Amino acid sequence: MDTLGRGGYFDNFGIIRDIIQNHLIQVLSLLTMEAPVRIDGKGAGKHIRDAKVALLKAIIPPSPDDCLLGQYHGYLDDETISNKQSNCPTFAVVIMSINNPRWAGVPIVLKAGKALEERKTEITVQFKKPPAGAFLFGHEKGPLQNELVIRLQPNEAIYLKTNVKSPGFDSRPIQSGECSV
Prior knowledge:
By secondary structure, this protein is of the alpha+beta class. The protein has three helices and nine strands; from the N terminus they run ααβββββαββββ. The longest helix has 26 residues, at 7-32.
């Protein structure tokens, strides 16, 4: 889906401020924050906010190497975009790292884009690789990482991709497919 004639608005913000910052970071903070002292009753909102702020402070700012940005072909043809030289990103993948004991070393991938073959707004938590994976499975890289995927668009879903033994006598791991929860 493109900007649907809202390119003039979108061009001022781009995919990072429109989707990544406003939506995916909100979901990321709720997913990865430590449990607040209270989640209901008087003062619960302050405790939830404090837990989210603590998490946001622990995010390591991504470097340019942690980001992939792009703009779909035809974006500048939208008549509501006045700057025909705009390099406003319409697609982004950002790898986030959180500097706390629970999430240290666990990359979290945020993806969002306009006018893709498939609409996609999701967060992927890539769990740590098994420490002996390369040795056990005889492949220098070892098995793929298990992943928890939270898809906001299209068709909201939460699913887990896990490594399973391939059928037969082979001990090679394969990654299970999407299984919505």
